[in-house]
Amino acid sequence: xxxxxxxxxxxxxxxxxxxxxxxxREAHMLLLPGRGFGTQHPSGRVSLANLNESDYxxxxxAMRRLIEEYVERFNAATGKSSIKRx
Length: 86
Known about the structure:
The chain has helices spanning about 5-15, 20-25, 55-80; strands at about 30-35, 45. It is mainly α. Strands 1-2 form a two-stranded antiparallel ribbon. Helix 2 (about 20-25) packs across helix 3 (about 55-80). The protein is globular.
């Protein structure tokens, strides 16, 4: 969505679990690591078993706020004014 350059910067400048821990701390949402516990992998899983539709909207909004913060950090670190969305 934000391009390869941003993804490469994000992977280089964050730990894979950092985003998951921030979502838990700031938005009170627990997502599981994409490849299970104890592994370093830049992905997360949301349980589809027992959440209400409104819960998924809340998760989406929290993820959007978090990623937009990292986009701002990327822009500041690289001197870019914006990222093209795909």
